[in-house]
Design brief:
- This protein is mostly beta strands and 480 residues long.
- The chain has a single domain, classed as Porin (Beta Barrel).
- It is 9% helix and 43% strand.
- It has a 16-stranded antiparallel barrel with strand order 1-2-3-4-7-8-9-12-15-16-17-18-19-20-21-22. A two-stranded antiparallel sheet has the order 5-6. A two-stranded antiparallel ribbon has the order 10-11.
- The chain is globular, with a radius of gyration of 23 Å.
- It starts with a helix and ends with a strand.
- The model is unreliable at 1-46 (pLDDT under 50).
Length: 480
């Protein structure tokens, strides 16, 4: 599988042409019933949302997606800049990510299902300012090391085993991470192989997917969760999960990178590992006037990372006593240091079309930010609204606000001129990094979607001397 800018440009043009044809047809056809085929007569909710239909009965599964994001920002106030600053002169960048999802049901028995999953991916383009200078960066698709190039790589390869504890079956959506359409109501699931931890943990149906929802790192994920991953966001691990009717519990053991934001993973589990636990409750809190339950989900997450990390305080002291010319946390790293934290994630359906969600995150903040981004505390709230009222039920409007913070030692380290793997203006006048993001996601035809997104970032990189920054985005997404 290969991806090129020429191919993606052609797909984008095809998407535009298809949507224009669809729009023109809609303008010509009256609202009165017509002699449409049965497929055309299906309501919008039942129309396929992929370019090609997928079988629910075959042992084999194949799907794909392409996501292209154009982002631009105008010039903004900045009295000074450092090597890790968000560039203030204004710029534009395009990112591209394409994925091929493959799967096979090795054992096709709902109670003891065994799935094999294999994904290939290509990530190209670049982020604004090379994805530096903002802790809640504006594009989750961007690889933080652009020197890796766009050569396709193995993103996921894993076995998924279901162990049913009851004969009572419930329906499940067949997709890229699950091939079964029926699963036991009470079951164990074990997954092992290469994965991304947000595939399993901290999931939120309103704020998780940068391809159809928000784009910001700390809106789609809990920014204070420094989850185990290489610079592309993947790791090797084992997931053990128990699912019951109204609750689930998960434990994940995963490999940590050898250095902060590194591409290489440390396979010595005695020295380095990421351990994660999550409890999920699906007890309904609200009901409609007719007595129908409204979907409610609450997830509580805890993690502890063991890795070759440093303490901000050690780097500060070495600089102040003259040992180091500049604060450098990488000069004071030690094996088996522990960074830990917690997260709360909730979502609530208020009506058929309106949903709200929120996240709270905290980590101890004394050890260096190592794998995800430089956030020690985060608070987020937002929601989305479907377009049923204007006869576009697959369209969505989303709005979210997130405020991020770092602890005192982290602040002091940046103020004295230290650099993390994302931040470092050379100085710091500290303030919380506040982000407001809104989008409109438009369903054009089958698997073609377009989105228009705006992000307002106040105090980029926690620096009150710089900004605010406004980032405008246009996204083209295709599900095959």
């Amino acid at each position: 599988m290969t991806f090129s800018w020429r191919l993606c440009g052609a797909m984008a043009l095809l998407a535009i042409a298809s949507s224009l044809r669809s729009t023109a047809s809609a303008q010509k056809i009256p609202d009165a019933p017509s002699a449409a085929s049965p497929a055309d007569a299906l309501p919008a909710e039942s129309a396929p949302v992929t370019v090609f239909p997928h079988s629910n009965t075959s042992r084999f599964f194949a799907a794909g997606q392409t996501n292209i994001i154009f982002q631009a920002d105008p010039a903004f106030h900045s009295p000074y800049q450092g090597v890790n600053s968000f560039i203030n002169r204004g710029e534009y960048k395009v990112s591209l990510i394409g994925t091929l999802y493959l799967g096979m049901q090795i054992r096709k028995n709902p109670r003891t299902e065994t799935d094999f999953l294999l994904d290939f991916e290509s990530a190209g383009g670049r982020g604004l300012s090379e994805a530096l200078g903002i802790a809640g960066f504006t594009n989750l698709d961007v690889v933080r090391n652009p020197n890796l190039g766009s050569k396709p790589y193995l993103a996921r390869v894993q076995l998924r085993q279901t162990i049913g504890l009851t004969n009572k079956m419930v329906e499940a959506d067949r997709g890229v991470f699950n091939l079964a359409t029926l699963v036991p109501e009470r079951r164990f699931e074990i997954r092992a192989g290469k994965m991304s931890l947000p595939d399993t943990l901290d999931i939120n149906s309103i704020g998780t997917d940068s391809h159809l929802q928000f784009m910001n790192w700390t809106v789609d994920n809990n920014g204070a969760w420094d989850y185990a991953a290489d610079t592309r966001g993947y790791t090797y691990g084992v997931v053990t999960e128990y699912d019951d009717k109204q609750w689930s519990a998960r434990y994940v053991l995963a490999l940590m990178p050898t250095v902060a934001n590194g591409i290489d993973l440390d396979w010595a589990l005695r020295r380095a590992s990421g351990q994660n636990v999550e409890f999920e409750s699906r007890l309904p809190f609200l009901r409609s006037k007719g007595g129908e339950e409204r979907r409610s989900v609450v997830r509580l997450l805890g993690y502890a990372n063991h890795a070759h990390m440093g303490l901000y305080r050690d780097a500060i002291n070495a600089y102040l006593n003259g040992t180091d010319a500049v604060p450098d946390i990488t000069a004071h790293e030690r094996d088996s240091e522990v960074k830990y934290g917690f997260g709360l994630n909730a979502e609530q359906e208020l009506s058929k079309d309106l949903r709200v969600f929120g996240r709270i995150g905290w980590n101890e903040g004394q050890h260096e930010s190592f794998a995800y981004t430089e956030v020690d505390q985060t608070f987020e709230t937002g929601g989305d609204f479907a377009g049923s009222r204007w006869h576009r039920p697959l369209d969505k409007i989303g709005l979210a606000f997130v405020t991020n913070a770092i602890k005192h030692d982290h602040q002091e380290y940046l103020k004295l001129g230290g650099h993390g793997f994302i931040l470092g203006d050379g100085n710091l006048s500290y303030g919380r990094e506040d982000i407001l993001e809104g989008y409109y996601n438009l369903h054009a035809w089958r698997g073609f979607f377009y989105a228009f997104d705006t992000q307002f970032i106040d105090h980029p990189g926690y620096n009150t001397a710089r900004g605010p920054v406004i980032v405008f985005s246009v996204r083209s997404h295709i599900d095959f």
